[in-house]
Write a structure and sequence with these properties.
The structure holds four protein chains of four kinds. Chain A is mainly β. Chain A has one helix at 37-43; strands at residues 19-24, 27-32, 50-51, 58-59, 72-75, 78-82, 93-95. In chain A, a hairpin with a 2-residue loop joins β1 and β2. By secondary structure, chain B is of the alpha+beta class. Chain B has two domains: 2-165, no CATH class; 188-252, BFD-like [2Fe-2S]-binding domain (Arc Repressor Mutant, subunit A, Orthogonal Bundle), CATH 1.10.10.1100. Helices cover 29% and strands 26% of the residues of chain C. In chain C, the strands form five sheets. In chain C, strands 1, 2, 3, 4, 5, 6 and 19 form a seven-stranded mixed beta sheet that branches. Chain C is globular, with a radius of gyration of 21 Å. Chain D has two domains: 9-48 and 155-224 and 316-374, FAD/NAD(P)-binding domain; 93-146 and 225-313, D-Amino Acid Oxidase, Chain A, domain 2. Chain D contains eleven helices and 19 strands. In chain D, the strands form four sheets. Chain D has an eight-stranded mixed beta sheet with strand order 5-6-4-14-15-16-13-17, sandwiched between helices. Chain D is globular and about 65 Å long. Chain D starts with 8 loop residues before the first strand and ends in a 10-residue tail after the last helix. The chains are: A mainly beta, B alpha+beta, C alpha/beta, D alpha/beta. Chains in contact: A-B, A-C, A-D, B-C, B-D, C-D. Chains A and D meet through β6 of A and loops of D.
Amino acid sequence: MGDRRITDHPILDFDEGEVIHFTFDGKPMEGREGDTIASALHANGVKVLGYHFKTKRPRGFYCAIGNCSACLMIVNGKSNVRTCTAPLLPGMVVETQSDRGVPDDV
Amino acid sequence: MLINTGVPTREQIELRLPSPERRARGPYAMVECFQEIPCNPCSTSCPFDAILPMGDINEIPAIDLDRCTGCGICAGVCPGLAIFIIDESKGDGTASVTIPYEFRPLPEKGEMVRAVNREGDVIGDAVVTRVLLSKKTKTPLVTVRVADEHVHEVRFFNLIDNKTVCDKTSSKIEEEPKTDDTACATDDDEIILCRCEGITLRTIRDLIREGYTTVDEIKRISRAGMGPCQARTCGPLIASEIARMTGQPVAEIQPSAHRAPVKPMPIEFFLGGDSE
Amino acid sequence: MMYKIDLVVIGGGPAGLMAANTAAEAGAEVLLLERDGHLGGQLVKQTHKFFGSEKQHASVRGIDISTMLGDRLDSFGDRATVWKNATAIGFYEDGVITVDHDGVYKKVKPKRVVVATGASEKFLSFPNNDLPGIYGAGAVQTMMNVYGIRPGHRVLMIGAGNIGLIVSYQLMQAGVSVAAIVEGLPKIGGYAVHAGKVRRAGVPILTSHTILRADGQESVERATIARIDRTWNAIPETERTIECDVICISVGLTPLAELLWQAGCEMRYIPALGGSVPLRNDCLETTVKGVYVAGDVTGIEEASAAMVEGHLAGLEAAASLGFKSDSYDAERKDCMEQLTALRSGPTAEKIRTGLACTACL
Amino acid sequence: MNVPKSASIVIIGGGVSGCAIAWNLANRGIKDIVLLEKDTLANGSTGRCGAGIRMQWAAEKNCRLAQYSVEFFENGNEILGYERDIEFEQSGYLIVAANEKEAEQFKKNVKLQNSLGIPSVYLTPEEAREIVPLLDTSQFVAATFCQKDGHLNPFHTTDAYAMAAERLGVKKFKHTEVIGIEVKNGRIESVETTRGRIATNIVVNAAGGWSKAIGAMAGVDIPTYVQRHQILVTEPLEPVFSPMVMGFSYNIYIQQVPHGSIIMGRSDNTEPLDFRTTSGWKFVEEMTKTCSKLLPALRTANVLRQWAGHYCMTEDAQPIYGPAPGLEGMYLACGFSGHGFMLAPATAQLVSEMILGEPLTIDVSDLDVGRFERRELVFEHSVV
């Protein structure tokens, strides 16, 4: 789904940032430097970031700026990470979250 | 009407057309701005003072066509991309339209394109005669040559070879209504008002009917608005549902309290404080 | 540790940037808090040219205005500090503002505050409104214009205000097709010239229409829309299905005023301004002394007005601390005149009505 | 909607106490009861409290009051016919002793509690950690635990009482403020509200922090005062520990509620003595510090929100029950000093008995308002 990256834009220039490797539910994926976790997932065609802990309905981000909390995921084992604002870092292990999550050390 | 369709009426356009003499004389700017909005770069950018100074920034631009040379500077700066340069002086059955075109890919000089009118419909062919790039405005000005009789209609173009900006099929929806009766029934159970807690419109409506008519009461009983977004998403929806069902003005419906922190922060984050 | 400073400006969008610049220019020590990693707020997503006059940088693209204002702030050296990735998370009764600065907890106690936190997007209720693929217009802009990622292949836009129209246009610029723009009102709310741009590019604008529902297995696959009557009820047999993988909600903004509520500012719900807004005097000072406001948090308006308000709020906040330059009177008069001009046309009628209710004197 | 012209009893205050008293009286067959609330139900201390209930007290009377209430709540949904759920979870209170002195007192407490039939136990830190594995055992020397203690949903509990009361004929008026109380010859004649006057000879003052102001309307001095208390809550998490963890020296109570959020609160003598419900930053700093000490594993949980309410305090931090002296017809149920929510069933029972002149289920005659003048204060040390 590489066609989601905009390469030729009439107004904006998007730098081809460094490729960042990460995994999503075990699948290897590529993002770019400057991506948030959610934007990298989106570029890979991933819209479903989790399932609501109570209703089990699929969840995707709505606001993309950290307001709405619909983008919570498990990142490197840590629950409730706001992936729409959290920067993507190399080697991140990103997983869909379908429960309320637990603190790191529990 | 313009405000219903986004397309100016034939009358609006015709009133703006210069005299036949002026049209025959050479290129001129056609300013298709018909609404009083606070905007004046066209008038302040014109090097020939052809677009008259505005006393009030909301005035509709007025143009002195004797001064206008059709240079196109205004077409490049107009934030509404509503100025076109028309040249009907060629006298060979063709005329040209210069269109601000902020899409990619850009056509090349000599390329054949589909001429498109203000409604987005293809009305004929056109040839690209000039592509003018501007580093300053980043708005390319593309001149296309069309048949004489189309010059006051053509305001856009589509590239051939499936490189259209938009697939025009979508506009057909208005002409081909189709009924899908499985999709008609509105179901309150499928409408999520509070995304964080997964609270449906049905739950909220039931509570309002039971007499819980403030945002706080609904929050306390149902948890709607208690989640991580702090009611940013659902608060206004719940308030307007209360207003709708009880007849109270929304203005009188007290929102629930806005508490710190504005965004959730880990407990360890606050350990940096020293309570001084 | 408690940071003490003359002025804190919360929000690095058009209003906040102007406030910080003006106050620093006047001689105040300014700290600007911006929750993003870059300055500009919504300006960085605005790839279109601005309306207004030269004073509000008309015809310059929002994204370039942001750079200009940021550069100017840099020129004040130590007098203007910018914290990026800094969210003001609490505004307490003793005037202390707590901040998440890049994950570090900080406390600031300024003598004056300009709150320029902008707005947040409204949400809409319809069946399956929580399906992935339903995004706020701001989210779509962020994806496209900040991260360079197309939100989908085919978008149904809900709302024909300026944002709905502009984002539709930007989607096409990014190579995404727009199936239609659906607007509940019988007329287009945004500027006619914006509507004209998307119409000629082939996008229908369906006024007096609404979205009935979204459907899809795990994410949006289609939407059902229908014509509505004057009471917003769907007219039978006008339903139609639109294939799309994104539904973009652009039904308006509401002032992001949480910090003002926390600070104890007197607020009033004014529908014409998008929600609850702070009462303020003609210096843009709220009912809490020393707390000034500018931009969308005072009521939803265009960025041009936000910049002028930012200028005025920065000017007044600095002046109240004794930083009053020779040009104070002229600048104040000029701001007032600019605001009057921007708000004088027929498209600003709603704003004028709303503003008439906000005076706290 | 106007209030009725007369009532047998007017109850002032739509918190849990007022609603419980209304239900209790109506359940005994009393008709024409009116319940007045100036805002919405549970909008004052009730809706802002920690909503725990414990029987582990140092004073016998408090143990008994709590015991009565626990037994009521165990069947609360059924007794009140509540279709939602008061969410009474008997997940226990685990109270830690920070030092040997406190541990000694705890041994005495457990002995007393056990003698009353309260199944509390005295634990070593290691035993405590078996119940709450997140505890840092180096932070305390001993603990007590009672599985029968627990937690409720304060909104649902109040709602349950109010709905049951209304079904029995109680007329509830929200957004109706008492603006005056008419007294003639030392006897209450009527209550003036923002929606009209109600003739009545009996008023129950269950107005929490506002009880003093209500008393003043009838010329009675009620020696209560308010103090702000703050709480914070985390994002909901999967269940990680169930009991309320409490420490008197640590000045903390912290619990994961069934919904998953962790709530925690503390007291602070420097808090303002007025009605403000604004929040302070010092609270968050102190609270998170103590929490991280005692339950270090919670340090990555996200703080979602902080809020404030107030305790309606008395000099000895014990409730005031009984008639107002020198004024016929006013009954007091106030001054709960932070424990009103958990005592509501007992409060309702006792106040009803007092009004109807029946023998008291638990002797609380020493908790009358006169004790402050007599200087017969009743102290309880096990408080946060």
